[in-house]
Amino acid sequence: MRIVCIGGGPAGLFFSIVMKSARPDAEIVVVERNRAEDTFGWGVVFSDQTLGNIAAADPPTYARIVESFVHWEDIDVHYRGRTIRAGGQGFAGIARKRLLRILQERAAEQGVELRFEVEADDADHAGADVIVVGDGANSPTRRKHAAAFGTTLENRRNRYIWLGTHQRFEAFTFAFEETPHGWFQVHAYQFDAQTGTVIVECREETWRAAGLDTATSDESIAFCERLFARYLGGHPLLSNGKHLANPWITFVQVNNARWHDGNRVLIGDAAHTAHFSIGSGTKLALEDAVALAAALQRNVERTRAFEEYEAERRIEVLRLQNAARNSTEWFENVARYANLEPEQFAYSLLTRSQRLSHDNLRLRDRRYVEDIEAWLSQRAGTAKPVPPMFAPFRLRELELRNRVVVSPMAMYSCVDGTPNDFYLVHLGARAQGGAGLVFTEMTCVSPEGRISPGCAGMYRPEHVAAWTRIVGFVHDNTPAKIALQLGHSGPKGSTQLGWEEADEPLLRDNWPVMAPSPIAYGERNQVPRTMTLDDMDRVKGEFARAAAMGLQCGFDMLELHCAHGYLLSSFITPLTNRRTDAYGGSLENRLRYPLEVFAAIRAVWPEHKPISVRISATDWVEGGITPNDAVAVARAFDAAGADLIDVSAGQTSRLAQPVYGRMFQTPFSDKIRNELRIATMAVGNITDADQVNSIIAAGRADLVALARPHLADPYFTLHAAAQLGYDEQPWPAQYLPGREQYVRTLRRAAQIAADAASEVTR
After folding, report:
1. pTM tops 0.85
2. Helix ranges restricted to H, 445-524
């Protein structure tokens, strides 16, 4: 087998080492256009996990790398004159040149042929069995075959300059400095006994406003030395990019629809990139190398090997890229978090990628987490520290015991809009389960405003009686509060029950639907009738009537549903609002009717009781609502008197292409809360108490709504309290023996796990 690696970076070198170890008979050549000692950048960061992967793949390489490491456990965040330290991080740095030298020497020992200062053209190696393309993010080879690989490139919005220094850093250091031009930040760490990396970063507009777009390399370095002098201890900043016309660069996000074509296969940065702020580039390159070598060893047929390699690595790469996107956006929007106090600012930074959680931080540095919990609790007005999810919260005169919310969930079990005993048990059980706030499902303001025949309503006297019974049970038997969500289905009405063909029309007895414009939700859905001004006045009155009926029932809070493609949402998004009157066109016009409806319900709802608004923060469709639009939408409702923005996303169009993942909608809540400095509620694939604690502690939301976890476990909050050792969360008196049993079971499981760990150690 003849293999040519184009690119002599970590990806190509480590692949050649691992592959040659497994197949000594293979002829492997590494071709690199630069000199052996040339490299851009200074240090490389490895996590303990990455080190373990290197050790498993090639112990000699691991041993040599470890000899050259500078290891640290702490992260220091310098912000507004304060330094916040979090320990237990488990990272190590090594000089990039030293890493490359180790890999070069190890490859040569294995019999790999290394050719430097050679411009590689894959056409010159067409006869090779495999061409491994590992020549970096700017890969000429990938660029040449961009159509075959389906390459897409995205330039991020920040500028950064990669420098060095002889200052010694005790910890991985983040430092933030505000200037008249905007924020600048430093990522700095030690990578050998004498040298550290200093990456200075800022937004594009800040870079231009500071005059750095026309500055020479020396002028840029001098600027950074002055700005960050307090962290450099008198040491100058060093550059190995002075030959560049301007040393400030932007990060390029590389994606490829396919990682292989013929005998060519992409690896490392040539295949994908993830922002340096999570230190993942070298990690991904080395892990790609191991996976590709293993796939080639398993398979005689080359294409099958490439397919297995790509299938194995793509999921992990997507996970890292999603985390890197969250991290990148945090650093691109430092000004968004400038209102946070240093304690919460640092916590937000540490958890920015959503991969590092509250529990994970506790395992790394218990004292740090105890300090942040004490700080958060003091701000919430509690007498002693509590887990973030159990901090109380106030909206107007509504006091919530904790931050956990049972999200609105359609149960499709009403008869003519009337909730029956199922709803009494369903909502009552979840209120008993400890959540601070329980929402009804979207409760419709008219018969034709229902999504399905099984949906709840608030338009008949029978509805008031049924809801009053449910509200009374919650108030009489639990400390929970209960909120009424009001909505109108609009173009998504007259559809089947959720466990049938969701969102598809009824098979019979359909009722007519209406919307701002005659645009059907799907091919099979009805084309809605265009609403007239009389229709709009009538529906607005129905919302006001429903709100007044909700007050009769004793609900503690209202929510206006302006999301998910239902009537009010269909006014807001340009995908379904094509009106040419005062209610269409600009976002301001498209918001006009939803704001009129909000004003109508606010007018009949008591001043001391809060109202929230649920919005879709993005349509996930080109030309639809964007997160920046969502900020404008939230600002408008806040100005109108909304007390909380319930930040959801999507479900407005069947063309939507959402980016799913853990807590995938939380960044929208974060953006709205911290840019507008208003209260928000996060929703969307939030599944456990650890995530709730992380979101609240980081200031990404004020409340956290969970849906499916509450379907699986009505007592989610009580169980979380027991798991966290929080004794102040009240259980129903009738259930106290169950609490004692549950706590004993938790302790027994913990002891079994500890004994098993001890046995493994012995």
Report:
1. yes
2. 461-477
Number of domains in the chain: 2
The answer on 302 and 410 residing in a single domain is no
* CA distances in angstroms from 513 to 131, 214, 489, 516, 526, listed in the order given: 59, 59, 8, 11, 7
Q: Are residues 314 and 406 in the same domain?
A: no
What would the pLDDT profile of 580-605 be if each residue is shown by its tens digit? 999 999 999 999 999 999 999 999 99
The answer to whether residues 239 and 136 belong to one domain is yes
How many CB atoms neighbour CB 639 within 10 A? 9
Closest residue by Cα to residue 689 from 730, 664, 725: 725
Dist CA 424 CA 437 (whole Å): 15
Closest CA to 616 of 638, 653, 577, 647: 647
Domain range for 404: 390-729
Annotated catalytic residue, options 566, 583, 593, 715: 566
Domain boundary among 314, 332, 350: 332
CATH number for the domain spanning 457: value is 3.20.20.70
Domain annotation covers residue 754: no
Those residues with Cβ within 8 angstroms of residue 506's Cβ, 6 or more apart along the chain or in another chain: 452, 453, 494, 495, 496
State the CB neighbour count (10 A cutoff) for residue 21. Answer: 15
69 found inside a domain: yes
**How is residue 693 written in tokens?**
């604690």
Q: What are phi and psi of 341, to 5 degrees?
A: -70, 160
Residue among 400, 396, 422 at smallest CA distance from 409: 422
319 and 415 part of one domain: no
From the list 233, 213, 95, the residue with the least C-alpha distance to 173 is 233
Between CA 82 and CA 84 the distance in angstroms is: 6
Task: For residue 76, list its beta bridge partners.
Answer: 85, 173
62 given a catalytic annotation: no
CATH number at residue 77: 3.50.50.60
Instruction: Establish if 606 belongs to a structural domain.
Output: yes
C-alpha angle 427/432/434, rounded to 5°?
A: 110
Question: What is the CB neighbour count within 10 angstroms for residue 381?
Answer: 9
Residue 412: pLDDT over 90:
yes
Phi and psi for 532 in degrees, rounded to 5?
Answer: -90, 170
Single out the residue of 493, 413, 503 nearest to residue 450, CA to CA: 493
454 and 556, same domain (yes or no): yes
Q: Is the domain of 324 the same as that of 458?
A: no
Does any domain span residue 583? Answer: yes
Q: Kindly report, residue by residue over 213-238, the tens digit of the pLDDT.
A: 999 999 999 999 999 999 999 999 99
Residues whose CB is less than 8 angstroms from the CB of residue 633 and which lie 6 or more positions away in sequence, other chains included: 562, 572, 587, 591, 615, 625
